Amino acid sequence: MKSGERPKLVRGLRQESRRFRLLVIVVGFFLVSVTFVVISKPDAILFSLNGKLPVDQAPTSILIQQKVNSPPATTLRTSTDALPGGDPRVVDDEADPKPQGFKGEEEESRVLSEPDPTSGMTELTPNKDGSGRKSDGEKLGGGGDGEGKRMEERGHATDKHKVTLPTVSNYTIHDTEDTENAKRDDTSYDQQGSKPLCDFSNFRANVCEMRGDVRVHPNATSIMFMERGHSQRDELWKIKPYPRKGDEFCLSHITELTVKSSKVAPECTKYHDMPAVIFSLTGYTGNLFHDFTDVMVPLFTTASEFNGEVQFLITDMALWWTIKYHTVLQKLSKYPVIDFSKDDQVHCFKHVIVGLHAYMEFTIDSSKAPHNYSMVDFNRFMRRAYSLGRDTVTVLGEYPKVKPRLLIIKRHRTRMFLNLDEIIAMAEELGFEVVIDEANVSSDISKFARLVNTVDVMMGVHGAGLTNCVFLPQNATLIQIVPWGGLEWVSRADFGNPAELMGLHYKQYSIGVDESSLTEQYPRDHEIFKNPIAFHKNGFDFIRQTFMDKQNVKLDCKRFRPILLEALDNLNP
After folding, report:
1. Number of helices (H), then strands (E), in the chain
2. Domain spanning 405-569, CATH class
3. Which phi and psi angles does 550 have, rounded to 5°?
4. Cβ–Cβ under 8 Å, residues 55 and 267
5. Whether 332 contacts 277, CB under 8 Å
6. H-helix or E-strand spanning residue 108
7. pLDDT for 83-99, tens place per residue?
8. Contact at 8 Å (CB) between 514 and 486?
9. Taking Cα atoms as reference points, which of 283, 4, 354, 320 lies closest to residue 120?
């Protein structure tokens, strides 16, 4: 070997040795890295590590078999049990049995002027635990299903329940360290604890509530609760955010949302500092009674604690509804509503409520409501929302020249007063100043609220117009005229119990056979007069057509007179 070749060989061997050592270091570092990944985040090896999930590619379902863990099948008896052939709903004049959003071609053109006026009521019965004890709702006198479509049994009222998920998600891993999420204060994201994301125990409404890192993704109709650390919550729920649980006819037109826990989710595109409440407006809205019992009262119960600092996201948006009730919405939230179905953002909140707290028909169960809100609170809220001047009625004698005011709710086509002039004359003779007005779907809410607030007594035949009692001042009297046909229980459930819980006096007057226009259609010895309850077995359609749509009232003023005298006594100091 030449003397010049030896140094070259030595240098070559040294270079090969350095390459080998470098290779060993690289391989060792790779093995250490892989070991660290497997130990600290085992799910990551199954997914792409790009750290981001495109918003438009967020999966909407889990791709493996899931086991549904349904709660014990407890059949809840309802007021429909009294009607084997149908559902106990009492409808207003132009009632349509289809819920809002279920319209034929002829109906499309009248959504704004005559939104669907179906209605219904539900009576509380045994507790979900199957015990014979009455629920809190029953103790409060909550009740039945009135104007709208109802299901005969509540055994399937739990609809879709919690689903157990696999440990491994099918989402792409989302690395928050290289996004704006890392700039957020993570201390606010550990508030949920072990509390389940959803509560499906209420017979009337399912509600999900999450505190932490919550991402609302309208495109995927999903709400995701981001798990932190070593949490293995693994929850998935299906919820339709409208408080008519068990009413499949109604809920079939409500958008179903998925609420789930996850360690990965789409990138946030919009951050919010305030809480969010997500609810639907389709259902039976369009009838004044349902506007309040299905939306207004539950929305107050759910959102008023935030003092306006809350964002509403509405699925199945009804623009006409938000316009009609914009005064109330603006009092509950300082922010424009978000149309869930038309939104393409991924909204990030620290607190989200999906669904509305609801317990009974047109009533708040203060023992269960947040901050023990009551119907007295709701009555006060409605007066303040519309800037109504009277909080309490005028005491007789306080202003000698001022007469007590009586408002008679006038109806047309059905359940009309056939002797209205005679009723007015009798009331005026007793000392009332009588006001006549008609409440219907096209009424200006603000204008009618101001009128109702000026009166001391309001009376009318069973119907949605009586819902306006929410604007009456404290200690005013509501008088409900019950048509012939065994409808006393549903009348009290819909308006009697709520009125008393609002701090109003309530009187219920059931008409006799001679006061019913049915005597012009049936002979006096007909079974419909002897035993009207027996006809309930024919189903709700028969009840509606016979006892409501085809019946008017001719009050026996002599028999009715004591009711008005009692209303006057309520105004005495």
Report:
1. 16, 19
2. alpha beta
3. -115, 25
4. yes
5. no
6. helix 105-108
7. 333 333 434 544 443 44
8. no
9. 283
